[in-house]
């Protein structure tokens, strides 16, 4: 039984039955995450064991629409699950954000966008490829957007470019702070279509396979508390991907980013979960209730 004082919703927040079930599911896998968290940060290693548990629990499909075999969680439900995971392992919750959002963009969010009949038909066909990989194969998707420029903030076109070629796209560029480096099976890259006069409206969202020729990972990553996210630098050198690698129809991401600006706050629930865990630890420490430490009260008044 989770103490409601340390729940991400408290005791009176209105939840539907599915949200209650998913929070309980996250709480059920969480304690094992907490036991491993220090090891991942100490070793700067990715939490592969935690992702195996997420896969076993079906949580890799959390934000995959139900009609594609997923759990169909919306943005609010995702936030509740993410905050819950954040209580146990920050690195797991931060990287899970990248994977879950990679499912939300082509899923629930794309359903809210204006598309032509042809775009809808194309998108339905392409996104089925991505969702099936996750639900049936346990594929993990990363979301490397950052480039060290104003592009990720929506102030300039992305420097990573994709050129249309027969049967697909040829990509060149680099991404920094790319969480899940070396752990993801696919990297959902935001890039600019390489054509005369291209602008932010020509942003493409394309999934690059981890084993694609010309794709490499470089650089170090060693920040205290976030080592387990393994957020290194990705380099794309004439990387070819087929047409069905697109996560959204050509140029549609610009509309999505404008209509769903709250998607750029999806890391916030993770940090709320981390803060709740810090509060819980502090209370238990002051009460002398930390396992392995003497049961000494550290203040004379009840906490």
Structure commentary:
This protein has about 300 residues and is of the alpha/beta class. About 40% of the residues lie in helices and about 15% in strands. Strands 1, 2, 3, 4, 5, 6 and 7 form a seven-stranded mixed sheet that branches. The relative contact order is 0.15. The model has no long low-confidence stretch (mean pLDDT about 95).
What is the count of helical runs? 7
CATH architecture descriptor name? Beta Barrel
Query: In whole angstroms, how far apart are the ends?
Result: 20 Å
Helix content: 25-40%
Task: Tell me the domain tally.
Answer: 1
Low-confidence stretches: none
Shape: globular
Number of strands: 7
Indicate the structural class. Answer: alpha/beta
List the helices and strands and how they pair.
Layout: H1 17-43, H2 48-57, H3 75-86, H4 90-109, H5 117-137, E1 141-142, E2 161-165, E3 168-178, E4 186-193, E5 203-209, E6 215-218, E7 232-242, H6 253-259, H7 268-286
Helix pairs in contact: 1-2, 1-3, 3-4, 3-7, 4-7
How would you describe this structure in keywords?
303 residues, globular, 7 strands, alpha/beta
């Amino acid at each position: 039984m989770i103490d409601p004082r340390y729940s991400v919703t408290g005791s009176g927040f209105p939840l539907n039955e599915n949200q209650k079930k998913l929070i309980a599911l996250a709480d059920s896998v969480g304690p094992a995450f907490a036991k491993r968290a220090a090891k991942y940060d100490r070793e700067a290693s990715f939490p592969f064991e935690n992702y195996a548990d997420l896969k076993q629990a079906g949580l890799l499909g959390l934000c995959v629409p139900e009609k594609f075999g997923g759990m169909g969680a919306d943005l609010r439900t995702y936030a509740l699950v993410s905050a819950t995971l954040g209580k146990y392992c920050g690195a797991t919750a931060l990287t899970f954000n990248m994977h879950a959002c990679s499912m939300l963009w082509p899923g629930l969010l794309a359903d809210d966008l204006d598309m032509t009949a042809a775009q809808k038909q194309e998108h339905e066909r392409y996104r089925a490829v991505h969702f099936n990989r996750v639900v049936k194969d346990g594929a993990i998707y990363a979301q490397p957007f950052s480039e060290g420029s104003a592009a990720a903030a929506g102030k300039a076109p992305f420097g990573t470019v994709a050129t249309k070629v027969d049967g697909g796209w040829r990509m060149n560029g680099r991404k920094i702070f790319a969480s899940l480096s070396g752990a993801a099976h696919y990297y959902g890259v935001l890039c600019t279509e390489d054509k005369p006069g291209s602008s932010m409206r020509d942003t493409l969202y394309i999934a690059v396979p981890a084993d694609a020729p010309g794709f490499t990972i470089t650089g170090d990553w060693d920040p205290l508390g976030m080592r387990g996210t393994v957020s290194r630098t990705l380099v794309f050198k004439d990387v070819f991907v087929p047409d069905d690698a697109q996560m959204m129809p050509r140029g549609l991401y610009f509309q999505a980013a404008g209509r769903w600006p709250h998607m750029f706050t999806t890391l916030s629930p993770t940090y709320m979960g981390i803060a709740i865990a810090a509060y819980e630890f502090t209370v238990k420490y002051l009460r002398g209730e930390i396992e392995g430490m003497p049961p000494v009260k550290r203040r004379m008044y009840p906490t």
